[in-house]
Amino acid sequence: LARNLDHLAGLPAETSDGHRVRLWVNTGLMADVVRSLERGAEGVGLYRTEVPFLLRDRFPSEEEQREIYREQLQAFAPRPVTMRTLDIGGDKALAYFPIEETNPFLGWRGIRVTLDHPEIFLGQVRAMMKASLGLDNLRIMLPMISGVGEVDAARVLVERAHRELLDEGYEVALPPLGIMIEVPSAVYQARELAERVDFISVGSNDLTQYLLAVDRNNSRVANIYHALHPAVLRALQEVVTAGREANTKVGICGELAGDPGGALLLMAMGYDVLSMNATNLPRVKAALRAVRKADADHLLQQVLVMDNADEIEETVEEYLKGLG
Ligand code: PEP
Ligand code: MG
């Protein structure tokens, strides 16, 4: 799988027996966009809006945001672009909006911040919807959802922003609304959450961190941060099952989707959309195209009964070696 993979850009992301998944990309900077399109990305599963906020020394105005978002939407149109509302806090701090906490990953993060500051949230979603005028490829996604109340509150704001824009004469469509599943409570309420939204997307980076209680950025505990830990795999399987039962589209946008072995397991679990860093896309596509769906299903069944992460990692590693 290490050979030159440029020729894959125009080929479909499907197994050798024709099971198709969608390979999308995670973006933040405009530089990501060019690479993504070159590699044949079919959409954006996660545009991290905090990136342009992190590059400034003050909050960008609604008009500045509109211009930045327009560039993203336009570059990918007609492909869908999933814009996540501001996910600051945790390890992502804005110099001009300091958050001092002893336990930031369990503190004021993501949707918690923007629901407490509706003016930030409204400005963002207004800018997104204005930017989508005439393109209609926008999807809005909420980070760090831990219960249904946050979804309901955010929806009220999105609908309010949409009504305001119509009143102001912008003929914009109300975009699909989705959430990230990245907090353990959301795994256990995946069904109820999925019923409330148009799509769900697993943030496996945070979900792994919170399920295993292992800081994703702490090198001292990096050896016990296992995205293929049996508990994580079980959670991933439960989420996709719950989403499908609710008839809601289910994707994943954490690093695991960009790992060839992880991607095979996720495909076998039933994930429709795998969103990853553009760098990993060709490798993942090559792995998917090299397997039969039934073989990936078999690998999944094999690892789902294993009780330790090292054994799972070795098994997946061996399997990939076997693909050549
Ligand atoms: C995640 O948590 O997996 C995710 C995709 O979001 P971020 O890495 O931006 O926290
Ligand atoms: Mg996250």
UniProtKB/TrEMBL annotation:
It comes from the Bacteria. The chain holds residues 420 to 743 of 759 of the full protein. Belongs to the PEP-utilizing enzyme family. It is found in: Cytoplasm. Signal peptide: none annotated. This is phosphoenolpyruvate--protein phosphotransferase.
